[in-house]
Amino acid sequence: MNKGKFIVLDGIDGSGTTTHAKLLKNWLVQKGYAVELTAEPSTRKIGTMIRKNLRTTKTSAEVDALLFAADRLDHVENVIKPSLMAKKIVVSDRYVESAVAYQTAAGLEMEWVLELNKFIINPDLTIILDLEPEIGLRRKKKLTDKFENVEFLKKVREIYIQRAQSRNYSIINTDRPINIVQEELQKYIQSLL
Question: What are the φ/ψ torsions at residue 92 (nearest 5 degrees)?
Fold first, then answer.
């Protein structure tokens, strides 16, 4: 392996991206791989600003899109690329498909969102974790950000599915026991490795 592998789990709020990213990391480490677990928004300076910003509706969809794109590029340059060059497997809880789905659902043109993100690197594998929005929101302990409502997440989910079909991403139904979903994810990862 000349460089590491870049794996992304994406999906609507409550679909299990965070849980399954952590479980995948643990599984890969047990198999002897060096793993970098990361997420978007990142924990870097711009990502921290975004996390605070998600609790307010004071910024426009355009501002959100620009902030997310800046965080993503910073994330790629300072976390993802160095980890890949160190031959690690990078497991990311969300990436560019979140921007496409959420920001298009918020009324922005998909082409503009994609243009903002043209400097990123493409993952080796993107898997969409799929779930009905009502179930996803019930899973969350508390609703804290502006995107967490059923009608909005229905639009987001539809865009995720359209993008997955057009880009040949795998879609995994997460309305099943965690261990069953994780086993299915591990099969996809095993075939990549």
Answer: -110, 130
The string of pLDDT tens digits covering residues 75-106 is 999 999 999 999 999 999 999 999 999 999 99
- CA pair distance 11, 161, nearest whole angstrom: 9
Q: How many helices (H) and strands (E) does the chain have?
A: 9, 5
Task: List, for residues 103-134, the tens digit of each pLDDT value.
Answer: 999 999 999 999 999 999 999 999 999 998 88
What is the pairing mode between strands 125-130 and 170-173?
Answer: parallel
Report the C-alpha gap between 125 and 95 in whole angstroms. Answer: 11
pTM over 0.85: yes
Task: Break the chain into its structural domains and give their ranges.
Answer: 5-192
| Cβ neighbours of residue 113 closer than 8 Å, sequence gap 6 or more | 65, 99, 100, 103, 104
Phi, psi of 85 (to 5 degrees): -65, -25
Architecture of domain 5-192: 3-Layer(aba) Sandwich (3.40)
- In 3D space, the residue among 15, 40, 56 whose CA is nearest the CA of residue 146 turns out to be 56
- The answer to whether the beta carbons of residues 183 and 171 sit under 8 Å apart is no
